[in-house]
Amino acid sequence: MAHRITLIPGDGIGPEVSAAVVRIIEAAGVVVEWEEHHAGVRAVEQSGSTLPQALLDSVTANRVALKGPVTTPVGEGFTSVNVGLRKALDLYANLRPVSNLPGVPSRFQGVDMVIVRENTEDLYAGLENEIVPGVVAGLKIITATASERIARFAFRHAVDNGRRKITAIHKANIMKQADGLFLRSARMVAKEFPDVKYDEKIVDNACMQLVMRPEQFDVLLLPNLYGDIVSDLGAGLVGGLGVVPGANLGERSAVFEAVHGSAPDIAGLDVANPTALLLSALMMLRHIGERTPADVIFGAVSRVLAAGATLTRDLGGTASTTQYTDAVVGEIHAH
Ligand code: NAI
Ligand code: MG
């Protein structure tokens, strides 16, 4: 049976890495009817909106999407399509596994953690106002409902995946009310899961500990902003943004995308690493029940990375996106 999946190629390196991933999924024999929709600048040209209703309808109907990165202008222009999409579809949980991959050069070995980021509120609510000239107030929204929901998601994820410890990350010494509520919610949920260890760390110390001894972390539970920042830090521990996948999950639908952005500095050069989006697509295949092809693809990627002869530039190699994709496809066919 063909799966119908929404495909949002994205901006910058998005079209290159998503084309590579589509090729690899097809090579593994998964039959997908891709419904392609654009977001951001590319969508405005066609529909007048950065987040067209047709895209939202497509994800809602298919319940699954694979998404490339979408550019958001800095300090001006339209609001983030990524934040808008997560809010519109109530994709409240952002799940980002951070682990070493065979053959990928990195500062650390033995890193195996999962970042669980609240995806709908915090300072990303986008409520900013210039109150008087020269004074801007940005509202940090933290609700008990969203905090408990993401904490419960993190604990359930731990139980379902044999993970042992949740570390809630906060700055409740300063933001006593907002981060205080996030922490109280996490502590309350922790009581429902006596078999999972629970501890807490202040975000600045957590960052230091992450770069000193990342192996001590298992599941990290964070509000939106810290989750965003710590995700890129986590990527840096295991080889960079080219290899870290992610999923935005809600009760009804799921959008799979890498942690990285549109990388305008290397867009169009056929040098981007498609591994991050590919591993996101493997999370997607498992989500829709295609475990065997996901395992086959993971095996092929692992062998190509471990062999080391066809690595992209970000991993110290010289292979192009196309050459790397060819190598992965070749490995799939060889087994
Ligand atoms: P970025 O993640 O696009 O790039 C940061 C650095 O990592 C760059 O040097 C880039 O070349 C490198 N990099 C990223 N992905 C790579 C890959 N797959 N292979 C090889 N190298 C890779 O972050 P930046 O430059 O801060 O943001 C660029 C744009 O992306 C901004 O408009 C931002 O808003 C957007 N963005 C979108 C996201 C999304 O759609 N989910 C997530 C993060 C940023
Ligand atoms: Mg980010």
How are the elements arranged and paired?
Blueprint: E1 3-8, H1 14-27, E2 32-36, H2 41-47, H3 53-62, E3 64-67, H4 81-88, E4 93-99, E5 112-118, E6 128-132, E7 135-138, H5 144-160, E8 165-170, H6 178-191, E9 197-202, H7 203-212, E10 219-222, H8 224-237, E11 247-249, E12 254-256, H9 275-287, H10 291-307, H11 321-334
Parallel strand pairs: 1-2, 1-3, 3-12, 5-10, 8-9, 8-10
Antiparallel strand pairs: 4-5, 4-11, 6-7, 11-12
Helix pairs in contact: 1-9, 1-11, 5-6, 7-8, 9-10, 10-11
This protein binds 1,4-dihydronicotinamide adenine dinucleotide (NAI) and magnesium ion.
Magnesium ion is lined by residues 228, 231-232.
GO molecular function: isocitrate dehydrogenase (NAD+) activity; isocitrate dehydrogenase (NADP+) activity; magnesium ion binding; NAD binding
Protein name: Isocitrate dehydrogenase [NADP]
GO biological process, one term: isocitrate metabolic process
Describe it for me?
The chain has helices at residues 14-27, 41-47, 53-62, 81-88, 144-160, 178-191, 203-212, 224-237, 275-287, 291-307, 321-334; strands spanning 3-8, 32-36, 64-67, 93-99, 112-118, 128-132, 135-138, 165-170, 197-202, 219-222, 247-249, 254-256. The protein has a 10-stranded mixed beta sheet with strand order 2-1-3-12-11-4-5-10-8-9, sandwiched between helices. Helix 1 (14-27) runs parallel beside helix 11 and helix 5 crosses helix 6 (178-191). The radius of gyration is 20 Å and the shape is globular. With 335 residues, the protein is an alpha/beta fold. Helix 6 (178-191) links the parallel strand 8 (165-170) and strand 9 (197-202). Helices cover 41% and strands 18% of the residues. The model has no long low-confidence stretch (mean pLDDT 97). The protein folds into 2 domains: 1-94 and 245-335, Isopropylmalate Dehydrogenase, CATH 3.40.718; 107-237, Isopropylmalate Dehydrogenase. 1,4-dihydronicotinamide adenine dinucleotide (NAI) binds at residues 13, 17, 69-72, 82, 241-242, 257, 260-266, 272-273, 276, 314.
